[in-house]
Amino acid sequence: DAGVTQSPTHLIKTRGQQVTLRCSPISGHKSVSWYQQVLGQGPQFIFQYYEKEERGRGNFPDRFSARQFPNYSSELNVNALLLGDSALYLCASSLTLGAGANVLTFGAGSRLTVL
Amino acid sequence: GENVEQHPSTLSVQEGDSAVIKCTYSDSASNYFPWYKQELGKRPQLIIDIRSNVGEKKDQRIAVTLNKTAKHFSLHITETQPEDSAVYFCAASYNTGANSKLTFGKGITLSVRP
After folding, report:
1. Cβ contacts of B89 on chain A, cutoff 8 Å
2. Which residues pair with residue A89 across a beta bridge?
3. B100 to chain A: which residues are within 8 Å by CB?
4. Residue A39, SS3?
5. pLDDT per residue over A49-75, tens digit each?
6. pLDDT of B63-102, one tens digit each?
7. Is the Cβ of B88 closer than 8 Å to some Cβ of chain A?
8. Could you write out the DSSP letters of every residue in B33-101?
9. Are A5 and A23 contacting, i.e. CB atoms less than 8 angstroms apart?
């Protein structure tokens, strides 16, 4: 059974461009969360989606948006890229929003470099 | 909101010794505390977790203890091995049933000297 898969694994963009990152959760998992990990720091919460609805949003500007599809996969979009958006973007899936929901399984991440 | 702090930022131990990594949290409502291990260039992997209704949990060489009164929890690794070298992140979460975001600490780099 495949784990959490993310694409692309690496990408380079220039300031002002837009980027879309993709995530497929573990089969049977209905919740997807996105985290940003800047070099040398812990992951920082961006969004959580469950059953296609946004269930939580971190302290990120409106340039960040996401959505979840009927098959539970998810996309993270970042517009008007800034140098400070350079980071590893991690997707994590969990089974539900209930008692077991906190148990996150992370994907390998998408490494975004903004020049 | 929740704030999670880890101390120290780096820790070096001799192979076979024990390592203890401490975290503090600020929100007394937090009820779930996982520890993740991240090797260089790899994804964070859950190694152990504890819920607020439990004071201690063990899994082979690793254990986690929770002190809700003091709002701190610790990761204990016994008989350390070189493959334990990695960055360890603690996190805290309050599962409201509506969402379950994790707030992470900045991480501790553990080096195990052979």
Report:
1. 42-43
2. A36, A110
3. 31, 48, 56, 94, 97, 101-102
4. coil
5. 998 999 999 999 999 999 999 999 999
6. 999 999 999 999 999 999 999 999 999 999 987 777 778 9
7. no
8. EEEEEE-TTS--EEEEEEETT-SEEEETTEEEEEETTTTEEEEEE-S--GGG-EEEEEEEB---SS---
9. yes
